[in-house]
Automatic annotation (TrEMBL):
Protein name: DUF6757 family protein
A matching Pfam family: DUF6757
InterPro entries documented for this protein: DUF6757 (IPR046645)
Top-level taxon of the source organism: Archaea
Length: 54
């Protein structure tokens, strides 16, 4: 399988609802960094902190 973003060999594969997408090492790292900095992840962290303290 090839990377979704470039023509390199995919190192990682992600599947959702039957759709499989491959990512090479560098694009995988790039996506993880983007997700780590996302507002959605910050909101999820806040929710988990609130729920675990109740």
């Amino acid at each position: 399988m090839r990377c979704h973003y470039c023509d390199r060999e995919a190192t990682y594969e992600a599947e959702q609802r039957g759709v499989v997408v491959g990512l090479c090492e560098s694009h995988f790292k790039q996506r993880v960094e983007e997700l780590a900095e996302s507002d959605e992840l910050a909101e999820l962290r806040d929710r988990i902190d609130i729920e675990s303290s109740e």
